[in-house]
Each structure stands twice: as C-alpha cells, then as structure tokens.
Amino acid sequence: MQSNTLWTSNNRIRGFTLVEVLVALVVLSVGLLGMAKMVMVSSHSNDSAYLRSQATALAYQAMDSMRANLLAATVNSYATSLNVMPLPQGNCAAYCTNTALALSDVYAWKQHLISALGPSGTGSITTTATFPVMATVVVQWDDSVAQKVFKAAGNNQTVTLQTVLQ
To answer: Is there a contact between 136 and 44 (Cβ–Cβ < 8 Å)?
Structure first.
C-alpha cells in the first residue's frame, strides 16, 4: 500500500500541464510586446532629440553669421520670416557688400534648415532697431511622428534664441 501511494505522488510531479505552458507563453509574449513598445518610444524620442539639437545648432549658426557681419545685422539685413525662402544670391567668395553677404547667409541658412529638419524646416530672424541691438532667431519644424507617440498636443516644435548683437 505504501509503495502504491509513493508511485501516485511521483506520477503527479513528473511534468508540466498544458495550462502551465500556455500561461508561460502568454506572460512571455506580453513581456516581449512591452519591450517592443519601449524600443519604439525610445527610438522616436531619439529622433525628436536629434532634430532639436540640429535646430539649436542651426540657430546658433545664424547668430554667428550675424556676429561676423555686424554692420548688416544692425541694419536688419538678416531679417526673414517663417516659411519664406529668399532668392538665391550670387557667389560671395571673392567680394560682395555686407547686404549681399547677409542675403547669401540667409539663403544658405534656410537651405540648411530644410536639409537638416526636413521639408517643414523653416526659420525667422528679427533684429531690433534700437540700441542695444537684439537678435531673435526662431527655428521651427514638424515633429508630428514623435508627438503622436507621446500623445502631445501640437506637431510643430520651435527653438527660439535671443542675444544682444551690439
């Protein structure tokens, strides 16, 4: 009788049931789906951060151009609006006036915005007419892919820099 009881208890602990295997598969698949979602969100976050750093660098590039050509910057030659592409300027490699150099800088800057931030990349530059001369550079781009993932309102992202030129 005792050996029969021993045989029955060993028989019960010999393997897994189908229900246990299915529960383990469900738990594993939910974990893998969670990890996939986390990878997707972090990828969108990295893309959004990359665009923000590119926009900041391009805003500083515009400020540096204005500091290098201070005479044109103080008379508002760098002024440009959002979504307005200036006309291409001639080659200023040898010599050109301060105003022509400013227009060439703005055109090149707008081209860099489009190439770095996509077709929606745009920017504006404004300067004050009074002393001290203040320059404001605004860079704007469409970040709708990342914003949908974060469920944030508004697709356009903006970086605004302001400095004293003189």
So the answer is: no
Q: Which pTM value belongs to this model?
A: 0.74
Phi-psi region of 118 (alpha: psi -120 to 50; beta: other; left: phi over 0): left
Least confident of 18-22, 38-42, 80-84, 87-91: 87-91
Long-range contacts of 116-119 (CB under 8 A, 24+ apart): 116/54, 116/55, 116/58, 117/51, 117/54, 117/55, 117/58, 117/141, 118/142
Question: In which element (H, E) is residue 20 found?
Answer: helix 18-68
The CA radius of gyration of the chain, in Å to the nearest whole number, is 30
Averaged pLDDT for residues 13-31: 87
> Measured in whole angstroms, how far is the alpha carbon of residue 40 from the centre of its chain?
15
